[in-house]
Amino acid sequence: MERSIRPTSGSLNSLLVLEVAVRHASLSRAAAELGLSQPAVSRHISTLEDRLRQPLFERNNNRITPTANADRLAAAVALGLGHVDQAWSEVLAAPETNEVTLACTFGFADQWLMPRYSDLRAYLGGGRVRVVTTDQLGDIDLSRLDAAVVWDPARMPERPYFPLIAAETFPVCSPRFLEAHPEAAADITQLPPELFLHFDTGSSGFLTWEGWFAKAGLPQPRLGTAAEFDAYPFLLQSVRRGEGIGLGWSGIADHALACGEVLRLGPAVSDRPHSYFLQHRVPGAGASALARMLEWFKHQADPRHLPPGTD
């Protein structure tokens, strides 16, 4: 059976260029994303306009505005690319093995995962888990990994997920610090600015000191301008040494609290229901390492925060 020639034949590259140009509403930004020159992008757009016999952008000096038909075509291209990307990932995916790769932040690995790591290995029954740690989750291709502990699952809406930890933020200090600054137990707003330790929350959306004071309904004191810690284990180590007070999060500070290394120094506040989610690819049939790891994480998650029907 002979396949008819598609009307878009010969225009696929130009349609890809159109999608990027419409998304940015800029030929120069489209050129930068695609690694092309701006004249090359303009030629692709002109080719489409000639074939369609209509303009696709309204031009006003150096600004361009997509027409309704350009928006319609770009949306169709984006939808088609999404289907292609999904099929590509499925074809590329390796067969189920006895190894699973998990990505998470340094703080989550150090304070939540490591105290439970032996239990996870035992639960996998000989399966191997490879942990990739980074506080820049946005810089790695999570689609190439089996699972990731993320702050925002919306980045990969095609992947299932479930919540792990409720979002609760509270100040913490060491017993040594409280002995040296007993006034902090009654009112931390009176502490000097340099004793407030800061963590670079990046794109996580976690509360900073300013957000915590606002949510707690307390007057915000003067806060220090010292450099922020760019990894949470470093800040927590500074807190343990009695160098100041920092913010702790449920799940991440629990181990240090249970060991008595740090103490709560104020109320817990929340700005959203959950702080961490376990997002993963759909495991294949059989008792793969990924399937067992997902079971283990669901056992570890607070059942109050799991969606109905999650076993």
From TrEMBL:
It comes from Leisingera methylohalidivorans DSM 14336. Belongs to the LysR transcriptional regulatory family. This is HTH lysR-type domain-containing protein. Keywords: DNA-binding, Transcription, Transcription regulation. SUPFAM superfamilies: Periplasmic binding protein-like II, Winged helix' DNA-binding domain. The keyword Transcription applies. Residues 12-67 form the HTH lysR-type domain. Gene3D superfamilies: Periplasmic binding protein-like II, Winged helix-like DNA-binding domain superfamily/Winged helix DNA-binding domain. It comes from the Bacteria. GO terms for molecular function: DNA binding; DNA-binding transcription factor activity. The keyword DNA-binding applies.
